[in-house]
Amino acid sequence: MSRPSCPVSAATGGQCPAGSVAGRSRASSRVGPRGCTFSGYCQPGDIHAAFDIPRGVDAEEWLRMRERKTINDLLYQDVPSVKEIGRMKNIDLLNADDHDLLAVALGAPARQVMIRAEEIGPATGWKDGYLSVEHGFCPPDYNESPGALANSPGRIWSDLCERMPGCVARGRVRESVAALPIVPGTADTVPDRALWAAVVALGMLCSIYRYEDKNDGHEGVAVSSTKYTPDCEMGDDLGEELIGIPRSIALPYWQVSRRLGRAIPHLTFFDQSSFNMKLKDPTSTFPYVGRFDNMEMRWPVFGERTEMAFQKGCADTSASFQHGPDAIASCQEHVMNRNIEGLLREMVRLKEILERMPNAFHSINTNPNSGENYVPGHQWVRWGKFSAPLSKRCPASSGLQFPPFLVMDAFLGRRKYESFLGAEGLHLRAWLPSNLRAFIAAIDYHYSIPEFVRASGDPRLMGVLDGIVEAYTGERGFMGTHRYKVFGILEIASKTGRTETNGLSGDADPNGKPWEETHKQFSEAMKERLEPFRGNITVEPHEMRGTFEECRYRSRVLSRAYVDTDSNRSIAMVTLDLQNTGVTFQPGDRLAIMPLNSWAECAKVAAALGLGDFLDYRVSLNAKWQRFAQHLGAVSHSSAPAHLTVKDILRRGHLAPITKELALKIHDLLRASSSTVVKVLATEEWPIRGSLGDLLQSAVADTNPHIWDRAFDLAGDMEWLADLIPVEIPRTYSISTHSQELLPSTVDLTISRAEYDLCATFAGEEKVRCAGVGSGFLNPFVSSGEDMMEDEEDILIGVSRPLNFQLPIDRAAPCAYFAGGSGIAPFRSFWQARLASHNNAAGRDLLYLGVQSREKFCYEEELRDYVDAGLMEVHLAFSRDSRGLVYDRRTHDLVEKEMPPRYIDNLIVEQGAVISELVMSKKQGGLGGYLYVCGSVAVFDSVMNGIRKAVYNHCSATMETTDMIVNRAFAERRFMLDVFMTPKPLPCNLPTIPLSQLARHTGHRPDTRMWIGVHGSVYDVTDFTPMHPGGTFIIKSNAGVDCSKSFDNLAHTNNPEVSSLLTKYFVGQLTPKPDFHNSPELGDLYELWSAYLRTTVETLVAHQFEMYEIMGASDDGTSDKYLRGSENIWSREHLVNIGLGVRMFYDYQSRLLQGGFSALFGPKLQELVLKLSFALADASASGTEMRLPDILGIIARAKTSPDAVVTSQQVSLVGQFVCDTSSNVRFAERGIFRYATKSVEMDIELLEDIREEACHGMDAFDSVMAMDVRSDSQRITVLAAFLMQTLERMAKRLEVFYTKLAQYKVYEPSLERNPARSRWQLVRRRVRDGSFFILTQQAVLGAAPAYVAAHNRGSSVDFDGVMNRIQATIRGAPRPSPTPTRLNAVHLARAATPPTDTSAMATHENNKSMRAMSAFIDKNMGSIRRLSRMPSVPLTFEEICEAVEQQDMLHGRRPPSPPSSHGSVNGTGSSRATSLERLMAAQNGRVLNTRTSSPMPGRMASRQGIRSPPTPPLDHAAALGSMMGKLNVRSRGGPVPASPAISAASERMVRPGRSMSMRPLPVNVSGSSSPAHGAKLSTSSLRTFKLGSERPAVKVAPTF
Ligand SMILES: Cc1cc2nc3c(=O)[nH]c(=O)nc-3n(C[C@H](O)[C@H](O)[C@H](O)COP(=O)(O)OP(=O)(O)OC[C@H]3O[C@@H](n4cnc5c(N)ncnc54)[C@H](O)[C@@H]3O)c2cc1C
Hints:
alpha+beta; globular; binds flavin-adenine dinucleotide; flavoprotein; metal-binding; NADPH--hemoprotein reductase
């Protein structure tokens, strides 16, 4: 390893020579003298000695002068030779351009702006904006401006800001503001130094005033119309921003804004975050002072952690760029001075700064266990509303305005701002403070750094620039990480309370998923930034992840070394060349490597295909290989080679393992003639353990040579080769080395060879060991001779940084590393880095390593050296070796000791005393150590098991406390994981899992399992959830559904880390959509129903997030943890928290009631009713009149029933508490708590019941397809009838829900502490609002239905009735407002309270359904008319079927419904009712037997007055079976195999006493415990992969 050197003085020795003077407190010591701004240079030190500077001279100035050259030296260095001048036509060109001369004479523009800002800023209160070398865009002193404000009359504003969370909690914001006296914001009262604090304080006060005005308890369900009117002067004359805001804050806000150069008052994003912070410790400056952990919010408005975490996270993002402006200005100077080495240093520094920036995202975490970093997505909604601009003229308060982004765009020379986010960013740039604008302009318009780098041709500069581009705007860089973070939070927010999103994701979003649309917009903006460097990008950024596109550097294997005494070298240290690449890395980073196939594998393929003589032939490339070829060219900084040879394809393509796709391709090419291939295809697990070479070697022997030759034609340009062999994907390896060089010249990896036995099809009886592609290339079998061959070919590599696996900033913190096998790989870089930058005063480093035997103890020599020197403690567990080694703390030695073999968990338990202290936080009196785990999932499980036991043994009395202690360590980000495993082939012969089964596994109740579906497979991710780096909620929001789309968007599909882990959690394949033969109607119904099922699941899961918040428990809680500890949102400072708890519940419940659970009972359900009614009527043959369940009527009646009104009145009472200035809530606080608990519990129960019903409906599709009937019409008839019944039951459940909820009241004096006072308050309020005399007031129900059915409860309606209602709904639906075109408008829309305040997702989905219904009716108008006019002929059910059949015969299969030229929509005669009633009675009596046995529903029955609930969910199989009994089901030699789930359900059906139960059927919690829903119970195993069943339809000619 080369000796590290100081980037400034070139002095060697590993330490910056300036880093050793004690006690020197240079403000600028964090950024060294000009030219020495390497970010590691942050220690005080003797600069004079280090740089040979005379004593008494200002070192920085001296260095600056020493570096400064004459203009001539700079501009006339390259004057050509006499000869060259002689050949020149125009010698004038040799004179430097005026612009260059002037610029060199004046200095770099960006530096000049900075110097000016620093000179003028301190004396003028930084009016032009903060800009300095040391602090960048952040204030040099966070206390200065608030301090100045506090010393001025403007103090009244900051004092009120300090009271604000309390005022919000008590609902007293507006009174407090109105009570303020008017203090002007002019220079005589508010000095310049106080301006920034004044604008922040006043801006926040205006925003919260506006917010309170809009959200005053009338925005939800409300019966009171009394509004608060302040008794004070207003600022209406000061412009539209300040209309309706008291003059006491409006006037000074207007005045200070103008003094800061703001034409209209507005609050920027960084006003609210960066300028609203105070530092805990201003001396804690490494690596930057404004870190999350070193800041507090000065003036929170709401005062709870969502706001704090979010604002602090945003401030951290800006603060992490503290040294960025100086680095950028220095880059510009070096470009001007054409100083390549200086530029290199500064660019490396800038890259390090950018690479650090995404860390800020940690501080915004959706994981409830993340302590103060926890930001629940749905609470974010409130902040979104608060931060809305005061008027439509204001610039939006958006992160797009963050100066670091805008200056980086300028630095990289971004010219395209066409995307929505691009255009908005540019617009917001014009609203930045003047200094910042000037600085960005200086970078934008002068001395393009990327151009200089390109022109220099220096590969190091180009490599570092590429690293900067990636770190800033790449998929794994800041922008990519930002996008993923936003995706996750938005998904949760959109499914819950958020009504609008950032960006243009309104109606432009075709899928009703705003987070996907936002994701797309982010991608577009990323592409605009990437294009200048990566050319025309044809794929989305996330599609680059896990592909060759991530490997942007060229390298070579330099050596492979033994790291232990294992003669097989199953683990090796592999060193790669990094010379001239510009690659830098840090401990924890990973290398992605594009492996090359072994020569032996290439040879097998070449031999079988006869390519031996063609290895250097050019191959005609398909699109993917062409992109690869271009990529190779770009990486080599040469024009892309337009071709690749046969050898290239063989070496760089995917040859092993054999995927199903690859095997099918060969099968087709050989026209199904190879028995080997057929045998391979019949396998029961994929992929197959073997290679393409193995397959071809076997197949060539059993295939007709003519066919072979035709398939693999060597005569042409061999385009089949590129089609057959796809480009290989990269493998990831942890970096195992640390370097102190500015640009490291090598990198070490620790490679464990993945070995497997060749499958029996190829190996026969023999046992043939094979190596994985990547590990086999890097660490080949010693006997293979591969590593003896010279590595001439370049390999492609890339570097990535996991956010959650980095060393602590605090170098004195103790670190414990837990590793299994090759999991030691990253820890070598950790300990090397820690020990290199430390002396013995550093925190302890402890390694706990589990390996099989002494022979496999890696890096023993190196570790022993550290142990001997007392620098490390090493503890070992050998699982198959009794020759133990024990660490002796006294002698600093590893001592031999015979002991029984053990695993790492035993070792941890043994060392439990120390380990448990490391786990305990400092606040708990522990050491607050950092714990890192690396290895397979099994290693992780074992380590966690050991740690829990250790903590239990030493620090806690119960397992519950143990979990709390461990969770705390996770929350403090002291537990970090790097868990990975080699993927394993998955079986494909398991029974498949129906959608309904997946849907039931949402894991939202304690001790239940959580499943997700991804690309046809189902995974049980319950145990993985706590490990998910993005936070548990991200994964939970996809529970129970197919989340392939999110998986793709989040680039999980290509991510080896994810895909390999997933194999561990595989449960089975998802039952594919049934083959609906030729019935598109059935297919459409299937799609519609499955979408509805999905909505039920997503709604349930999303509501559960809010439910736990409302109940005061974290997400692992249940209702019994109600009002628990610090997570209690209901109280603040021992008083009821109206601002958070009461308001949150009010918003939540209002949303549900106003929308009437609109996601489930709104247009989506109506669309189902419409299409099912139509299908039923249409399939039931002419001459029949259908009577249909009155589903819409039931829903309408339920929503407007007296019970619903009572419920709404109760919620509106809660709303009154929000706006009631006399804070009467304290007289009904316990009543509200109880009411909230009960209602959210009932909400969830209702949602669970609806999901259960939807699941039954889903299963019916499978069952109906398994039955043998005469025509699809019959199928449609029975299925539609069944589904209609299911919907009817759902509607009735809604009815029962209201009835039950109406039993509870907010007003429960007996619950209160002072019942008499509660009673008196009620009377007093009623007297005041007049309701004492008029007790009934009309509830304002946002979603009052467009029609109200006649009171024909329990009866059915005819087809016309259904159509009329649906048409009325469509006509009455509000037109969607046009999509806002500016960000400002979007934010305003978000703050407005729409009448039906449903979530963004539900709104989108409902709009979609409205459109679909409208289109459906238009399209089928003719048929609807025809069906409405059918004569009434009494027919039996059998007769319907016969009629259907006759129709089928008449019209081929199914005739399209003839358009009707006459008649009206309402043409049905009431005389037909009798016959239809008879028909339905026949069906109901014998087929849909619940109708007769339970004459539903009726306002009746129980003594408590609760309506009888619907009977348990209908068993679809029993019901369908009964229906099919009437349809001459053809015998299949035995009964149709009903799934055990179905049988179990039918058993339940006949059990007495079940019919009154409202609880859903027991959900299978473990995936196996309940036979009713076990995965293995599906009937659908018939659809597992069978040869040919999934193949694309390829015409195969007979071969023999
Ligand atoms: C974040 C991370 C860090 C890592 N760090 C290290 C490290 O430091 N050291 C180290 O040695 N390894 C590390 N790995 C593992 C490494 O990336 C490779 O997974 C490992 O080397 C095996 O790759 P291979 O090409 O040799 O094997 P492959 O050729 O990919 O195959 C190996 C085995 O997996 C099976 N297999 C391959 N593809 C699939 C598939 N799609 N589905 C199912 N089964 C499949 C094969 O049949 C075979 O049995 C790390 C992995 C990750 C994700």
